[in-house]
Amino acid sequence: MPERDAARRWIDAYADAWRRKDDRAVAELFNENAVYREHPLRNPHIGRETISSYWRWAVGTQEHLDLRFGEPIVDGDRVAVEWWATMVDNGIERTLPGILFLRFDPAGRCEELREAWFWLDGRHEPPPGWGT
Questions:
Q1: Which of 3, 8, 65, 75 is the residue whose CA sits 20 to 30 A from 89?
Q2: How many domains is the chain built from?
Q3: CB atoms < 10 A from the CB of 59, how many?
Q4: Percent of the chain with pLDDT over 70
Q5: What is the separation of C-alpha 100 from the centre of its chain, rounded to a whole number of angstroms?
Q6: Distance of alpha carbon 45 from its chain centroid, rounded?
Q7: Read out DSSP for 108-120?
């Protein structure tokens, strides 16, 4: 079960891998049978190789990424955290705010990730109080 510091380290490693477009580093944050649900109505990505393949596709067109994560909320083996990304994606300036819901195994690897996100055209700053 993650504590706040362990959750923050995981989130920082996830953010670092996203910034570097490192699908292998992202995959290593998950256990072998992890479930990665990037959208509530789409089929999940299951297992490290599938997660890595999804990530290679998802971040492949992102440039000039400015990525921020809020303070995680930790409850037992579950973590929730807001994120805010601005970028140029396929030549279009975009803002991508979202929330991660994470569940961890006893070894500290993520066994389930669910996220909710929204695309906005243009660059937008987070609202007051965001991330706290």
A1: 8
A2: 1
A3: 20
A4: 98
A5: 6
A6: 13
A7: S-EEEEEEEE--E
3-state secondary structure of 89: strand
Question: Which tens digit of pLDDT belongs to each residue from 50-67?
Answer: 999 999 999 999 999 999
For 79-106, what is the mean pLDDT? Answer: 96
- At 5, list the tokens: 């510091």
* Residue whose structure tokens are 């292998």: 24
Q: What is the pLDDT of residues 17-57, one digit of tens each?
A: 999 999 999 999 999 999 999 988 999 999 999 999 999 99
58 closest CA partner among 68, 66, 50: 50
Cα→Cα distances 112→19, 35, 83, 93, 103, Å: 21, 5, 17, 30, 5
Q: What is the CATH number of the domain that holds 116?
A: 3.10.450.50
pTM: 0.93
Q: How far apart are CA 96 and CA 117, in angstroms?
A: 7
Instruction: With respect to residue 129, please indicate whether it lies within any of the assigned structural domains.
Output: no
